[in-house]
Write a structure and sequence with these properties.
Helix 11 links the parallel strand 13 and strand 14 (330-332). It contains 12 helices and 14 strands. 34% of the residues lie in helices and 19% in strands. The strands form 3 sheets. Strands 3-4-5-6-9-10-11-12-13-14 form a 10-stranded mixed sheet. A two-stranded parallel ribbon has the order 1-2. A two-stranded antiparallel sheet has the order 7-8. The two termini are 30 Å apart. The chain is of the alpha/beta class and 369 residues long. Helix 7 packs parallel to helix 9 (244-258) and helix 10 runs parallel beside helix 11 (313-325). It folds into 2 domains: 7-65, DNA polymerase, domain 1 (Orthogonal Bundle); 70-353, TIM Barrel (Alpha-Beta Barrel). The chain has helices spanning 14-23, 30-39, 54-63, 123-126, 135-149, 175-186, 206-215, 229-235, 244-258, 278-287, 313-325, 357-365; strands at 7-8, 64-65, 70-76, 82-87, 93-101, 104-108, 112-114, 129-132, 162-165, 198-202, 219-223, 264-270, 293-299, 330-332. The structure holds S-adenosyl-L-homocysteine. S-adenosyl-L-homocysteine (SAH) is lined by residues 121-122, 166, 170, 201-203, 223, 267, 269, 298, 300-301, 344-345.
Length: 369
Amino acid sequence: MIESKKLDLLGYTRGQFESLLVELGEKSYRAPQIMKWLHHRYVDDFSQMTDISKSLRTRLAEIAEIHEPEVTAEKRSKDGTRKWLMKSRSGSSVEMVFIPEGPRGTLCVSSQVGCTLDCTFCATGKQGFNSNLTAGEIVGQLRVAQRLLGPDYPDRQRVVTNVVLMGMGEPLLNLDNVIPAVAIMMDDLGYGISKRKVTISTAGVVPGIQRLVETTDASLAISLHAPNDELRNELVPINRKYPIAELLAVCRQYANNLGEKRTVTVEYVLIDKVNDQPEHAAQLIGLLRDFPCKINLIPFNPFPGTSYKTPTRMAVRTFQDKLVDAGYSTMVRTTRGQDIQAACGQLVGEVADRTRRQERYQRIAAGVA
Ligand code: SAH
């Protein structure tokens, strides 16, 4: 475990920088200069910040650090998708995925090491939970990607055009770090990604969405996956605490608050014979009536140990057609990077599980517990 008492500057928002500078007896207008060094020029040493006074550089080096997560492995898919394994301060590792699609480049970042939610169809949940990532570690993933991808796309100023918090973890259970991280991603002095192109995805942590209403205007996605509470209680256990009606109500508030015809993305993993039947499509159509959304269907991506199956192409198509006929904008998310286990729900990293869930399962399976 890497312990550091130094300030983690990659996770500092513009406002936090301004306060820090004032505390240090400096002018707050230095904040943009420092942020540009960190997020536009990727320096890792204060001595490189040549337009900042020597005394401030020395002071910063004493109290603060520029800590980017260390990349320990990289995989490239034959479809161009790339996946990196990165070490967090906890000592465990998280995964991050880059998905190029024509002029668009989507980066899927992690917010936690492991996850507490244990959704039945997700590989991350099976490992249990280790720790939250810091704001610097969340922003650091974007910095690493921009830096490493730059040489491959010399004609592009910005390789990553979209960020989705759909990697490992539940972002809304780590909001103290996710909120500043997202602010830095959207700030021109950070990565300048538009608010419509930074998407926070949640399994349905209702109080977290309420907090987001007051703090950000990034896009929101919810992992719905079932059209009724009975089935959702089984697939996404947090539904037992925050049922569908409460979830949709708070999302409506979120979308209304943003105005500008903003919608919430509804994610729906299609699992063969579990939630992909005609009656599920019919229920979904009823449930989402008048709800300001776009629907993303994700054919289930298998991982070792799961008994769920991917539906046939026909079944996916039929489900999509029903929603489209009912007037919903509905996309099927094409599976990318499956040959390197980089698809949705396949990210596992290297997590030392503090809940020791794996061990518990094994003991239960062996009839010891
Ligand atoms: N905890 C957040 C973000 C991580 S999951 C959330 O639940 O939204 C990102 C997306 O991948 C979610 O929609 C999730 O439900 C989906 N997903 C998880 N496992 C999957 C699998 N095996 N196949 C396809 N999609 C999966």
